Structures are given as C-alpha cells and as structure tokens.
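The record is given unchanged here:
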Amino acid sequence: MKVMIQLEEALEIVLARIQSVETECLPIANAYHRVLAQDVASQIAMPPFARSPLDGYAYLATEVDPRPLQLEVVSEIPAGTFSDRVIGIGETAKIFTGAPIPPGANCVVRMEDTESLGNKVTILRPVSPGSNIVHKGEEIKEGDILLRQGFYLSPPAIGLFAAVGLDQVNVFRRPRVGLLSTGSELMDVGQPLKPGKIYNSNSYTLRGMLQDAGCEVLVIPIVSDEIEDTLAALEKVAEADVVITTGGASVGDYDIMRHALAQFGCEMLFWKLNLKPGTPASVGQKGKQIFFSLSGNPAAAMVTFELLVRPVLRKLTGRSTPEEGEFPVKMASSFGKTGKQRRFLRAQAVFKNGELWADLAPAQGSGILRSMIGSHLLVDVPENHGAVEVGELLMARWIADWES
C-alpha cells in the first residue's frame, strides 16, 4: 500500500481500475441527466420537408420579376397541412410558419411586404429564387449522428431526440453508492444533542452530492468506532459499485476504517494524500467494488469528494467529456498560513474588470462546513508555497455547480 501520495497519482491508480457500469434502455422522458451508452443516429431528416420560416406567400420567382408583382392566390397552407396544388407562373399560395412549401414554388415573401385584395396579392418587394425556404435536412440529414456515446443528456439533448421521433435510448445505469458515517460521537438529527456528541452532517451533504452526480444512494445509519459494527455495515452495501465512508480515517486509536476495510477483504491501494484538507483519505478495492475512506471533518470530506471521488463517478457513469482542468485566478484575499503540504482553499468566484478573482472563505478549517456555502472554487496552493498574497496568480478548479 502506498502512503502519502499526490492527488494526480491517486486518481491515476483508481481510474485505471474503473469500468463503466452496465447499460439499460429507457424512454427518453426518463433519460434526463443520464449518459448515452451508444452513438445515436437520426432515422429522419430534420426538417422532414422544405418549409416556410415565416408567414407570407410562396410563389415561383425569377430573376426578372417586375416591381411590384401581382399574383393570384390559389391555395392556403396552414402549418400541419400539405398542398399538392402545383404553383405556376402568376400564382401564389398563402403560407404560414412551419408549413410545407407547395410544389412549383421556389421562395416565400414576407406577408409584411405584400398587399392583398380578394384573391389577388401584390408583392411590393419581390424576392430572389430560394429566399425564405428552410430546406429538407437543413439541420439534420437522415443517418446523421445526433450525439455520441458518453454524452450527458441535458434537456436540449432529450428535446433533440424527440424532434426526430426517438422514443427510447440506451444509457448507462446509475451507479449504486453505499454511504457510511462512522463515529461513536455522532447523533442523527431530530433528537436532543447529548453531552459529548455532535450531529452527523456528512450523510446529508454527501448524499446530496451523490444524487447530483447521478447516483443511487444507500445510506447506512451511524456506525460506531468498533470493527465488528463496521464490518456488519459494510456487508449491507455489498451490492454497491462504490462505498464511501467518513470518519475513522486518521491515526488515532479509534481510527479503524482502513483496518476494517483490509479485514473486509479489500486490497488497500493507498493511504493519505499529500494535500489539505483531507490528508487521511484512503482507497481500497474488493472485486469490482471501490471503497473510499474520507475524513470525518465535514469540509475535508466534501473537498476530497470533489477532488478524488467525483472523477471516479464520472468514469463509472460513462461520461466521455473531460472534466474542466485548472485555470488561473487572481487572489482577492490573502491567506497567511504556511505549510509543507499542498492546500486547496475554498473561494467565491468574483469577476473584476473582465478578470476572474478568488475571494477566500473567511475560515478554511477542515471541519468548517460553512466554508463550502457560497464557494465556487478550489484554489490550488502548491506545497511549500508560503503565505498567499492579494493579487497573486494561482491555479483553481470549479466546484460542481451548487446554488450559493
């Protein structure tokens, strides 16, 4: 087992052991925020016929049409109808937005550029052949690839499938994640706080983060600092793809999680990351299951989730688009602490004069959950960096989209 490794090495180790979950076929109405499991081609052209993009008159234009041009109205074509009346020279069809272009016509003139009287219409400003026609297949041709495997299905993507008549789609299933909070000092909410106890917040923050990441979450009630209880709890999540534990991750007498995981049959891949907060994180594997042991400190657990767990969940769900990497930010506030370890500071993103600045949360302790509220960024302070100064340029990465 490796001890005290860099974040990048930890990710490389874990991601190399991850395979995407199985696939399933779903109605498109149930496929929002899922990930495509195969390329999807259109079975029809879009639009499926040449159509008018506006209300007006369809006629057969030439390059030598007089101004004004008088035509006889021989048909009317609302959207959703089709006319097989061929439009000849000197004739026109009154047409509405979205309606098919009638045979014989090669343009549409805006209704605002005409004057009508009875069955006659005067084209005040004649248009050129081909004007104001959306041709068949102009947006999508039959057989075109709409979206490729690994694409995250946003509402516009589902709308695109509906537009071409697709009713079902193959997607990766949701990863199943077991979530355990360990610590004899923990109590659940909804009951009076006893002396020496604290309320368990990690189950609630991480549950929400996992749901936002598209996972099915199985939460195990609070587990004591006893190996026997921990092993029994791990048995309850034997069907999960991923198990996340918080607490019991460090070096104290009651920090037994990595020992429990080893006793449970896990191959321990590493223990401790060379960063703050979240140093005592460890990862193990048993069969296809991956086990993350995170700090019990709330902010540390959330930061480590963003840096280490979320990339693994992306691969599990079949996402093909890469995560956004680090980018430069200017520091809007200072941080006086120095240390040998790499540090990730929580910060709010602020735009000043077209530049992105990072305004640090007032308190950066690993147990200060409130520091994550309103924070958009994790600012990457290299090891042995020294104090952070206002105006200094550092690298940062986005925290997943949360409301501030």
The chain has six helices and 25 strands. The mean pLDDT is 94. The chain has four domains: 2-21+174-316, 25-44+141-172, 56-123, 327-398.
